[in-house]
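Q: Joint fold for the lines below.
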Amino acid sequence: MTSTWEEFYAKTPKPADLEENKVLLKNFIDRFSNTNKKVVVITSGGTTVPIEHNTVRFVDNFSAGNRGAISAEYFLEQDYAVIFVYRLKSLEPFSRHFMGNKFLDMLELTSEDSTDSVKVTPEHSNKVANILKNYKKTKERLLQLTFTTLSDYLWLLRSVCQAISGLEDRAIVYLAAAVSDFYIPPNEMSEHKIPSTEAPSIHLRLVPKVLKPLVNLWIPKSFVVSFKLETDERVLISKARKALENYSHSLVIANILQSRRQQVVFVTKDCDYTLRLTDEELKNGEEIERLIVENLVVKHVEWMEKAH
Amino acid sequence: MTSTWEEFYAKTPKPADLEENKVLLKNFIDRFSNTNKKVVVITSGGTTVPIEHNTVRFVDNFSAGNRGAISAEYFLEQDYAVIFVYRLKSLEPFSRHFMGNKFLDMLELTSEDSTDSVKVTPEHSNKVANILKNYKKTKERLLQLTFTTLSDYLWLLRSVCQAISGLEDRAIVYLAAAVSDFYIPPNEMSEHKIPSTEAPSIHLRLVPKVLKPLVNLWIPKSFVVSFKLETDERVLISKARKALENYSHSLVIANILQSRRQQVVFVTKDCDYTLRLTDEELKNGEEIERLIVENLVVKHVEWMEKAH
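A: Joint structure:
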């Protein structure tokens, strides 16, 4: 049984930080509303579905947030303002290059005037300097907002759409987050940790498809891109096309779990075409997101021109 | 229905990197076997339970890996060799202090002899220098091994125990990972991504309790510490005591989800006592893991003396 999106919002409490995020959004958007700056909303990372009120366990979607974090860097490079809506602790643009203790190995202690200071080793300083330059150059155009659970995400997404609706065709919404299709309504959740003495069955409900009100009611004039991730190649394109028919948005980017870093398919109403890195490019550290964003920016501009 | 631990290992394929990890373990242990160095195995972070073979979705346990990563630093400070067995991408000792883009804000670009170099800002250089010093001083005594799924974890844990069994009472095993109590056997998993058109029910099985063979067969002479995390205070101590009776290991550290950063209870066969940070200490950034590790080291030494 699916509830409607209106029921979902009526029955699910809003996240504690929503009002704070709305203020951040308003201040950010206000800076660009009287310019011709293009804006992209990127959602990134997986949503959790708690199975207990006092949450110890949850159902999660596989996503480190690579697609979203990498794409954010390329959109900033293309001079977009970026609203990066990401799962808390998933990858962020720029810092994604420096995860874990490997980064500590790039640092060295030096003594200057008998005070300790810390430097990036000469071997790594070029790479780090470049990333840091890009970060500092673009951070004024980057707003980062976080979610954890599915309901945090759905509340935040609606507020983001309300905040950008005035930007109309200048805005892209790039839905790269791995959003759960299933959830457990608050009134069906266990209050405390499920005892580990019995094997439970978890009964999930379908999440209402908010892409429908998003495209039709919240931001009808913006450029909306959704992703379709499958593991079975045979159903990929037909499912992407089905999504386009159901929601009538601008574009579906279709990809297979195993090859998603090398190849994606752009599916529009009229056609589909493949973007692909060669094995050589992949080996050299090229990122498919560069192709995705470059292609998308061209499509966005064409589409804006057609709209006027 | 619970399967036995023997059945679990017989029916679940071993992780691809297990043999590689065994070599790393052997080389690490060999360096300490003819010394009197004390060794601790720390498990950290949550295990995943895939619900599909080509995994897009999984059931996860809440854990960023704070307890384990922080404890590893204090054990290194206490001169232990540390085998840190952690969930891929969960927190690691030392680098845990530098997560996300906040760390990029601690860096500045400088130009020396017309080449770019990158430095930690003077404001943060003391803190970073101290952490970096501790990291460099102790990294030879730190071995890091990763897992993701529940079955990766169970295979790796057994191999680690086999590798350290010769250390006998010099070894502590500190089981801080949040290990799933439930799983889906490989033959009951869905091959491809479950279609999002129907609400599924997930039927879970109980995971066999490997603490039993661990204590009784794999490392009967080592000091074994398990954790008990609950959300309901009323059942905490009784459950901890039950675990001690069932597995006859050395110590259970019991904690409540909401207060786990401020308070834990050490539960042994004979008594239980509380370790607690004051509100003031907590506010000043003190970590309860310092108390846990200091207490544990005293207990370990007493216990080694008694054993001889």
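Q: Anything notable?
A: The first strand of chain B starts at residue 39 and ends at 44. The two ends of chain B are 42 Å apart (CA to CA).
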